[in-house]
């Protein structure tokens, strides 16, 4: 009985988190000020993290909150705060609002139908093979060690690119100062 | 040995052509050019003499020498091979012999010309190709020589090319020749397709055996004759020869009198095996020959340029040679080639001597009274004139009389009509040649004053050659060539019924020659008044003849102008500009317009680009449903 | 409708909302955030499929996406900053230098 209650609670929470994430995402489109949009995005991400947790992949939920919210979105908020002082309110929407909405509907329909068709008729175990971080990390560093190394190379490339950007910006500054 | 004979003049061309011209920086002086340029042809001549004695020692069995295998196509091979029999011997001796003496003459004639080295280089080149032509065993080698002498002729006619008229004359000669060559090539194709070889001895013997049923001999005969028409200046392709007088006089003597123009005669004589089985072709040759002879003679009567008279005379004499070929008297035609080489070369070189003496004057209306002042030139010219007119016992009498006899009595197409026209031509020949002699040398001087002051006899290098050629013109008739050639080129059978007319016709020929002489003496002897009177009375005819029957103008209007129109309007304006350029420009314009349309997609708005991404995703998904 | 379909539907919706946001919003920073939303939708669908199998390949891919997204944002922001310094506005309509 507790099982079925817990299971239904599970599903209910999943549904709740899902709806909230969707609403927050929709809010992103609608809100006017960028800071508020950032907050909406953060809440979407947190709700998604909750969904991951409910699915049993806790370490991914942790990554989501740590990396995505904790690093990426904080950086984003920082930049918004940096730039926002000078910013006056501009127009909210571009010229392509209506075509965009029409395309949106088409896109949802098209992808939805494609995904729907390709799903096997009765699939189980949403919740089945939940695996822990130890299994993940062992597999990551053994079977997928190449991807691991490539990841570090990617980060190195990012660092180099950042340095290059600094140099470009410095040169632009000097050019502007010289007139 | 034969290969060496052919290659020696080529060596002369290379040496002089590179070292003695602007190409090599004018490294060597005139003596080098003279020694190489004259020495090598003389050496060739001596070698020909030696080979001739070898031939005689071997019982006149043909000597064959293969120099090089040119190409191997499938199972057929084309070699550069040389063939020496009686006919080749005669031709080679004339080519190298008369050629060498004309080279020597040129030393004196071109002494003050700035392109001395280039001239001798071209002359040697010509000699090389001419030897290829007469010594070649296959029609292919002959054709190489044929084209090569055409090239040399073009180069030499336009030798003083700074004057555009000379260059144009050279171009005319080359182009007209090419028209004839089309027929020649077609004939070669037919022969090769039938026999698988182009060796002339093989083809002749094949026809002897009976190939006339397989291959229409007359077709081949006429095709080859078309080529001969171009090279030997017969109607309708004779128009280049008078214009070719724009070249230096030794060139006119060597190429356009003695050797190159006789290539057509040589071709027909060499392919006698074919023509013996081609009565239709032979008839065509005889008629074209005698018609050309007649018409050229009529034009020669009214020409006023000393070289033009001789040019038309050459065309006329070539016509008589073709007449002989047409009635089957191949050996007689070759005989006339030889005697003609002697006296025509002598005449041309004599004309050159006159021009040289008068400092460049060529119009006979402004000559006269030169008899005492340039005696050697006068006497050699007179001997050669008598020879061409047919005064016995000079060379021309023998050969011309044989032609007239066979034209009348040969069972292979001889007829009184042919004889009559030919005899008339002989009368006119005597007339205009003695006219030339009179107007140039005799009577009162009509020269311009400053020209008259500088009249001088030519140097020994020139007069020596004149004397040699005059001697040959005098005694050349006694060589009895037709009988020498008879084992190879049999004389045609003469109609028995007409045998008794041989002596009367002989006498008639002599009468004709002297009648021409007398008429010329009458009309031109005592000043120009009688000549002018005749000219006034027959003014229309005179205009027609002076304009050479306006054939050049006819060709220009019938062929030249339509071709130019075709090239300009159809090919240039329509084809090149509208079609080709239009297509390319159109494609480019299409590309530009397409790009102009597509560039409207690039509005610079990222939103639009992102929207395109969305549309692309939707489109791809929808497209993937086709196979769902 | 079971959980998988629900989650996948949510993933599709998130992705589409993100793409819509890129097309529709004018502010550059908001556009960047919408791109992050798209990535999140993709991650959700990956996780949904991943934990149906017994292998870890899906999780590895998710991890890689995290890394790439981080590196991307770390560089995209400075580029945007430089651009903003040039144009003095965050409005994307001003960035049409590549027109034509």
What report would you give on this structure?
The complex is a heterotrimer of chains A (179), B (628) and C (100). Helix content of chain A is 80%, strand content 0%. Chain A has six helices and no strands. In chain A, helix 1 packs antiparallel against helix 2 and helix 2 (34-55) packs antiparallel against helix 3 (58-84). With 628 residues, chain B is mainly α. Chain B has 26 helices and two strands. By secondary structure, chain C is mainly α. Chain C has one domain: Helix Hairpins (Orthogonal Bundle), CATH 1.10.287. Chain C contains three helices and no strands. The longest helix of chain C has 31 residues, at 57-87. The mean pLDDT of chain C is 88. Chain B binds chain C through residues 599, 602-607, 610-611, 613-614, and chain C through 19, 22-24, 31, 92-93, 95-100.
What are the main properties of this structure?
heterotrimer, A: 179 residues, mainly alpha, Four Helix Bundle (Hemerythrin (Met), subunit A), 2 domains, 6 helices, 80% helix, extended, C: 100 residues, Helix Hairpins, 3 helices, 76% helix
Quick overview of this protein structure:
The complex is a heterotrimer of chains A (179), B (628) and C (100). Chain B is mainly alpha-helical.
